[in-house]
Amino acid sequence: ATAIVKSTPKDHPLFSFWMLKSLDEFLTKEKQEATKILDEKVEAIVRAEVESNPSHLKFDTLTGKERRKVLFETSAVVNEKLTKHKLDTKRFYLTKWLRKSFKEHLYQQVASAVWAKLATVDSDANGLDELVQLIRLQLEKEEFPLVNHDNFRQWTIRAVEEHKSGDKEKEPIGPYPSEEEMVHLPYSFVMNSLIRVSKESRGVDDSLEEENVQYPTADEDKEAVPIFMDVFDENQASEDENAVPSILYPLEYRERQTKEGRMMEEWELAARKDSKRIMLRQSMRKVAQVLDGCETTPKRVLMYGRHGVGKTAAMAGLVATARKSGHIVMYVPDANQLHKFGYYIEPSEVTEGMWNLPILSQQLLERLLHVNEDDLKQFSVDRDFIEKFFTDSQMEEFPEDMKRMDLSELCTIAQQSTIISGGCYDIVLDVLMTQEERPFDIFIDEFNIFYKQGEYFHMDYDIDVKKPIPYFEINLFKPWMDAMALTIEDDGEKILTPKLMKKGAIVAATSEMHPVPKKAHATFIENAKRSLVEHPNNFVMVEVPRLSQIEVLHTLANYEDIGLGRLRLDSGYVVNTPLEVEYLRVMSSSVAQHLMNCCIQLD
After folding, report:
1. In the chain, fewer beta carbons within 10 Å around the N or the C end?
2. Smallest Cα–Cα separation from 564: which of 318, 256, 316, 262?
C-alpha cells in the first residue's frame, strides 16, 4: 500500500530490525557473488552440525519442549562457529534454517536408501504404489530407522521422481518456505524507503527520486508473499494491551452474538497481545491506489464479497493507513448499530422534511473529535454561517459573545446539549466535505444495511406509525447516501449523481451477516455495476475474494505465531505438514472466518 511506504514509522519497535534487513538486502543486490558465498558457508556449517549429531534423526519424534531444547543447543553451537568465521549476519532466521536442515537431512537419509534399492529393482515394471510398497518392505527387513516416519511415503515418492528425472545431484526442493521468502516476509512493504535510509547511513550518494509505483501483474500477485501490517499502538499503556489499537478507534470488541466482524475476535483470543496484524491483500492495494489519488479527484469505493472473506479487516487496514498518511477520517464500523439503535428521532426545525438523530449525532462527533481534534482546529466558521443551521431558540445554547468557532469547539459543545447536536453535525460534515486543504475520507462498514426496511418511525411522518422514515431524509445518513449515490430501485435507468467531497473519498463495504433481503442486496449490487459504467471516473468496485493458497498458508503461520486456538501448542506441525494445510483450506473453503473457526475448534 502506497500510504504505508510513504510513512515508515521510525519509532516502531521493529524499525531497527527492518533497518538491518534493508542493509542486508542492499548488500544482496550490490554484491550478489559475495553474498552467495557467505550464504553457502553459513549453510555448510549448519548442515555439518545437523549431520554430525545422530539425535537429530529423531527430531520429528520429540515433544515441543525437547525440540526447543535441541534447537537452542544447536543454535548456540552453530552461532559460535559463525562468530569465529565472522559469519553471524544470518542469525535472525538461524532457527528456521535449522528446522529446514533437520527436515532435509531426514529426507536425504531416506532418498539415499531409496536410490540404492532402485538400482536393484525394475522401476518401470511396477506402478508407483507397488514400487513404494516394495521399497518399504525391503527397508523394513533391514530395520531402516526412518521407515515408520510419517513422511516416509511422501519422501519415497519424491526420491523416485527425482531418480527418474536425473536430479539426484540437485538439492531437493521441499514444501517449506524458501530462504528468499523468509528474508522478504517481515519487511518488504517498507523496503523502498529503508533502502534509501541504509544508503544514506553508509554514505552512499545515490538519492532515490520519487517515481510512479510499479504494481505487480496478476501473475506476479499469485506468487507474491503475503505481508502482514501490525497496527498495534506502542504508545498504549500496557494495561490496555487487550484493547483495540487507538488508530482504529472507534472499533471495539463486542459480544459474539452481535455477529460483528471476526477480525477482533482473532486478536482477543490470541495468546500474544502485543501484535494486532492485518494481512495486506491485492484488494486492499486497489483501494489504496484510489485513496492515493483522491487528493486531486474525489472517489467513491464499494467493497463487496461473500460472508467472512475479510472485508472488515481490509477496511480496518485502510483506515489505519489513511490516518497514518494524514487524512481526516470518519470511521463507521457499526452501521448496523446506527441503523436500529438511534434512541429517538425528531423532525428538523430548520430544514423541512428532514429528521435528526440527536444522540447518535453526539456519538459520531465525539468519535471524530477523539481522533482528529488537532485537524478540526484548522477549520473554523463565523456566527453568520452557524445561524443558518439553527433556530433563534437553539442559538441560545451558544455563548453570546461567540463570533467564530472551530470544528473541534463545535464537536465539544454538541456533547453538552442534544438540542443543537444535529445542527453541529450538519456544520462539521458540510465544512469537511467542501474544504480543499486536507483529504477527508469516510469509511462505512455494513453499508448495505441502509437498503433494508428502516427502523425509525415518527407520527409526524406517518400518523399510523407504520411507514419508516427513509434514510436519505435523516441528517445523519444523508451525506453518506448522497455521496455513494446508490439505490435499490428496479428501474435501471435511474442512476443518481453523487455528491462527493471536494477532496477525499468515501469507502463503503457490504455485510453478509445481517438480514438484508436477497433481492434488495442483488439489486443494490446490480445498480452499483450500472453506476460503474455511468461514472467510471469517480466510482470503483472492489471484490474481496477468498484467500489464495499461499494466503492460507501464511494465515496459519500467523495464527501459530500469535498463539491462536490449537495452533498455539503444536510446535509448527500444522504449518509444516502440507496435508494439514490442505485439509484446513478445504474445510474452510478458503474463507478467512471459517479458517479461523477450524483452527479454534479442538475436534
Report:
1. C
2. 262
